From TrEMBL:
<comment type="pathway">
    <text>Metabolic intermediate biosynthesis; prephenate biosynthesis; prephenate from chorismate: step 1/1.</text>
</comment>
<dbReference type="GO" id="GO:0009094">
    <property type="term" value="P:L-phenylalanine biosynthetic process"/>
</dbReference>
<dbReference type="InterPro" id="IPR036979">
    <property type="entry name" value="CM_dom_sf"/>
</dbReference>
<keyword id="KW-0413">Isomerase</keyword>
<keyword id="KW-0057">Aromatic amino acid biosynthesis</keyword>
<keyword id="KW-0584">Phenylalanine biosynthesis</keyword>
<dbReference type="Pfam" id="PF01842">
    <property type="entry name" value="ACT"/>
</dbReference>
<dbReference type="InterPro" id="IPR002701">
    <property type="entry name" value="CM_II_prokaryot"/>
</dbReference>
<dbReference type="InterPro" id="IPR018528">
    <property type="entry name" value="Preph_deHydtase_CS"/>
</dbReference>
<dbReference type="InterPro" id="IPR008242">
    <property type="entry name" value="Chor_mutase/pphenate_deHydtase"/>
</dbReference>
<keyword id="KW-0456">Lyase</keyword>
<dbReference type="InterPro" id="IPR002912">
    <property type="entry name" value="ACT_dom"/>
</dbReference>
<keyword id="KW-0028">Amino-acid biosynthesis</keyword>
<comment type="function">
    <text>Catalyzes the Claisen rearrangement of chorismate to prephenate and the decarboxylation/dehydration of prephenate to phenylpyruvate.</text>
</comment>
<dbReference type="GO" id="GO:0005737">
    <property type="term" value="C:cytoplasm"/>
</dbReference>
<protein>
    <recommendedName>
        <fullName>Bifunctional chorismate mutase/prephenate dehydratase</fullName>
        <ecNumber>4.2.1.51</ecNumber>
        <ecNumber>5.4.99.5</ecNumber>
    </recommendedName>
</protein>
<dbReference type="Pfam" id="PF00800">
    <property type="entry name" value="PDT"/>
</dbReference>
Length: 382
C-alpha cells in the first residue's frame, strides 16, 4: 500500500510529484494484476461450461457466453461495495465510475460485448449504455426501440438499452408495449441526469432558422425556448442524436442535445443546461435473454391483466401492503386485445427469488388473466 503523503508544510512540489509517480506505478501494476485475474476467471468459467455441456444437449452457445462472462448482479455488488468502503477525498460515485471502467476493460479482454441502443450516435440512450456497461463495450445504434429488442432477441447483440421514463415527461409507452410480445428480460437499469444544450455547427449561431430535437427534449426545454427563441421554428425529429447530425450539416439548424452528441458531431454550444427542470432525469432499462440472480439490492417488474370486476386493482395492490414491500411504479397501457381492457406494468423492491416476493407474485398470478415477470434486476448503482 502507498504511504501516507507527508504534511504539505514540510514537503516540496517535486517531492509530491515523485510520490504521485510512485503511486501511479503501483496502480498500473495492480490494474494489470486484476486484468490477469479476470482472464483466469474467464478460463475457469469456460472450462466449467464445457464440462456442463457434456451432460446437456441443445445449449444456446450465444446466451451461454453472455451468462458466463457478464454477471449484472456481481458487478452491482462490486460497485456498491466500493462506494461503502470509500473514505474520500474522492466522491463515492467517482470511485464507482473508476471501478466501472476497470470492470468494463477487464471483461473486454475476453470479448467486448455488443450493446444495442436507440440511436443514432450521440443520443442519451447511448450515454446511458456507456454509463452502465463502461466504455469498452461496442455500442450498436438502432433506429427504433423495436429494433433494439430484435437485435437482442436474435442474439446479434448481447444486451440492449432502451428509455423507459423521464422524471418530467413520464413513461415511454413504446418501451412498455415492446415487452408485451417479447421473451427478453430486464437485466438492469441506468439513470441519467439529462443536461440539454443548444448546439450549432462550428462557427455557426447566426441565422438559425429552426431548432430540432426529440419531442421530449423540446417539451423539457419549452420555457427556455419561449424566453430566448420565441419566433424560431421548432421541429420534432426521431432523436436528439439525429438533430445533432442535422445541425452538423446545416448552419441554419440548431439542435437540442447532450454533451455526447456535441462531441460526436463536432458542434458548438450556444447555451448549456437549457432544460426547464434542473433535476431532469431519464431512466433506462437494460434488456437481455437471461434471468439475473439476486444482488441484495434489487427490483422486480411484472406486467399483468386483471379480471374486469370491481376492486380488481385493489386486490392486485393488497399483497404489497400486507407484505410491507415497496411498490415503486404502476402504469397502465391498453391491452390491444379488446376495447377498454388494460394491462398494468408494476415495479417493486425485491427479487423474485426472495420468499416474500415469491409469495406476492403467487397471489397476484391467481387474480390475473395474464401474468408475466419481466425480470428481477439490480437497482442502478450509479
Amino acid at each position: 500500500m502507498p504511504k501516507e503523503p507527508p504534511k504539505t508544510d514540510s514537503v516540496s512540489l517535486d517531492d509530491l510529484r515523485q510520490q504521485i509517480d510512485s503511486i501511479d506505478t503501483q496502480i498500473h501494476s495492480l490494474l494489470n494484476q486484476r486484468a490477469s485475474c479476470a482472464q483466469q476467471v474467464a478460463v475457469v468459467k469456460q472450462r466449467e461450461f464445457e464440462q456442463a455441456q457434456k451432460f446437456e444437449s441443445g445449449s444456446d452457445s450465444s446466451s451461454a457466453q453472455q451468462l458466463l462472462f457478464y454477471r449484472p448482479e456481481r458487478e452491482a455488488q462490486v460497485l456498491e461495495r466500493v462506494k461503502k468502503a470509500n473514505n474520500g477525498p474522492l466522491a463515492d460515485d467517482t470511485v464507482a465510475y473508476i471501478f466501472r471502467e476497470i470492470m468494463s476493460a477487464c471483461l473486454a479482454l475476453e470479448k467486448p460485448m455488443e450493446v444495442a441502443y436507440l440511436g443514432p450516435e450521440g443520443t442519451f440512450t447511448q450515454a446511458a449504455a456507456l454509463k452502465h456497461f463502461g466504455a469498452s463495450v461496442i455500442s450498436v445504434p438502432q433506429a427504433t426501440i423495436d429494433a433494439v429488442f430484435a437485435q437482442v432477441e436474435s442474439g446479434q447483440c448481447n444486451y440492449g438499452v432502451v428509455p423507459v421514463e423521464n422524471s418530467t415527461e413520464g413513461m415511454v409507452s413504446h418501451t412498455l408495449d415492446a415487452f408485451m410480445n417479447s421473451r427478453l428480460k430486464i437485466c438492469g437499469e441506468a439513470e441519467l441526469r439529462v443536461r440539454l444544450n443548444l448546439l450549432v455547427a462550428q462557427g455557426g449561431g447566426e441565422g438559425v432558422k429552426r431548432i430540432c430535437a426529440h419531442q421530449q427534449a423540446l417539451a423539457q426545454s419549452r420555457r427556455w425556448l419561449d424566453a430566448n427563441f420565441p419566433k424560431i421554428e421548432r421541429v420534432a425529429v426521431s432523436s436528439n442524436g439525429e438533430a445533432a447530425r442535422m445541425a452538423s450539416q446545416d448552419p441554419a439548424t440548431a439542435a437540442i442535445a447532450g454533451d455526447l452528441a456535441a462531441n460526436q458531431y463536432g458542434l458548438s454550444k450556444l447555451a448549456s443546461d437549457i432544460e426547464d427542470q434542473p433535476d431532469n432525469t431519464t431512466r433506462f432499462l437494460v434488456i437481455g435473454r437471461e434471468d439475473v440472480a439476486a444482488s441484495g439490492r434489487d427490483k422486480t417488474s411484472i406486467v399483468v391483466s386483471a379480471h374486469n370486476r370491481p376492486g380488481a386493482l385493489f386486490h392486485l395492490l393488497e399483497p404489497f401492503e400486507q407484505a410491507n414491500v415497496m411498490l415503486t411504479r404502476i402504469d397502465t397501457r391498453p391491452s390491444r386485445t379488446e376495447p377498454w381492457n388494460y394491462v398494468f406494468f408494476m415495479e417493486f423492491e425485491g427479487h423474485q427469488q426472495d420468499p416474500k416476493v415469491a409469495e406476492i407474485l403467487q397471489q397476484i398470478e391467481q387474480q390475473c388473466v395474464m401474468f408475466k415477470i419481466l425480470g428481477s434486476y439490480p437497482k442502478a448503482a450509479l
